[in-house]
Design a protein that fits this description.
The chain is an alpha+beta fold. Helices cover 23% and strands 22% of the residues. The structure holds iron/sulfur cluster.
Length: 65
């Protein structure tokens, strides 16, 4: 799995960080998402899928590799 984020779409809601804090963080200044791990290990895939599902801005795209 490869994770892509679109910081221009992100509205800083932070749902992704709650769902998968190992993979997503937020910038201190404005809360915009920061990707910590673009290729997370298998045990995190479910959490990453949840994060993408709850993102209100559809700023998270998952690529299955
Ligand atoms: S859930 Fe979506 S909109 Fe909210 S911080 Fe994460 S990427 Fe940004």
């Amino acid at each position: 799995m490869r994770v892509h984020i679109d910081q221009d779409k992100c509205c800083g809601a932070g749902h992704c960080v709650l769902a998968a804090p190992e993979v997503f963080d937020q910038r201190d200044e404005d809360g915009i998402v920061v990707l910590l791990d673009a290729e997370p290990p298998a045990e995190l895939h479910q959490a990453v899928r949840e994060a993408a599902g709850v993102c209100p801005a559809a700023a998270i795209r998952l690529e299955l590799v």
